[in-house]
Amino acid sequence: MNRFDDEYGVPSEELVEQWTEEFYGQLMNIFNGFFTHVDLKETVARIKDIPFESMVLEKLSGESDEVKLTALRRIRELADADLDYLRGYLEQ
Predict the structure, then answer these.
(1) In sequence order, what E strands does the chain have?
(2) Which among 44, 46, 52, 65 counts the fewest CB atoms within 10 Å?
(3) How far, CA to CA in Å, does 73 sit from each of 1, 26, 40, 78, 88?
(4) How far is CA 81 from CA 1, 6, 10, 48, in A?
(5) Which pLDDT band holds residue 67 (cuts at 50, 70, 90)?
(6) Which residues touch 76 (CB under 8 Å, ≥6 apart)?
(7) What is the pTM of this model?
(8) Spatial distance between the Cα atoms of 82 and 66, rounded to a whole number of angstroms
């Protein structure tokens, strides 16, 4: 049984999204230490350059395409939400 499968052996979108949120949170905890040393505009530019998708694909090598696509979609949503939030401060 796969770590993302439900009790019926079907990939669970919820489990994949939960894993992705935890993975993203861990990455951002690491990166936040670096971002405290640059201004907000530079932080936004650097977050845009982080290859979240390739990091997810590396961690999920061997998983099904469905799992990978779900994780890629979710990590992009999380990164875009953070970028939108930070851009809001730039506009003030």
Answers:
(1) none
(2) 65
(3) 23, 18, 25, 9, 23
(4) 33, 28, 29, 12
(5) very high
(6) 52, 53
(7) 0.90
(8) 25
